Amino acid sequence: MFVADNQHDWDKCLPYVIMAYRTSVHETTGCTHSEMMLGRDIGLPSDLLMGRLDDDTCEVLIEYAEQLRDRLEQVDQYACKHLRIASDQQKKNYDQKAQAGGYKEGEAVWLHNPKKKKGISPKLQRPWEGPYVVLKRLSDVTFRIQKGPKTTPRVVHYNRLKKYFGENPPTWMKFSGDGERQNKSTHQEKICHEEKELRGSQQKRRTPGRFDDS
Fold this sequence. Notes:
Layout: H1 10-23, H2 33-38, H3 45-50, H4 61-100, E1 108-112, E2 128-137, E3 142-146, E4 154-157, E5 161-163, E6 173-175, E7 181-183, H5 184-202
Antiparallel strand pairs: 1-2, 1-5, 2-3, 3-4, 6-7
């Protein structure tokens, strides 16, 4: 879900985003935000179709309060445990990515390139652009990428890149079996360059008027 280009309808999308955020299981804690705050999950539109428990099956208020207290304590302990596990896993993933160097030549990637535009909130803009193609790895942390056969290549840090998993990946550049890059536009540019040189050599050089005998 994205807002319109003029961002005038952002407030209409906000309730759906908040509901999705509060009912999604957090990767670090392993719990939903509503469960952390309320001790239970909130109702979803699917509950209207499948139904919920009747009021007669609910426990009395005192029992519910005691169970809620115990539940919140369990959730807190569970979340703290997952925080430690997730912290170690995130460090491991970051170290592996830094050591591996990230991306291979010919791989499609997104580029994180947030831009500020007058009258437009940067928080509601799309910070990723692409897809780009990795042309060459210049160092352990820098890569040369290009968006299209006629665009200017860019050199960026690998922290600004993210692997592209979308549909219709770029196909303007292919690689042979030995890994050598075969750019479709390179051959055309070479032919145009040779034709310009040939035309230039065929043109006769005119002598300036000040050197004429007359």
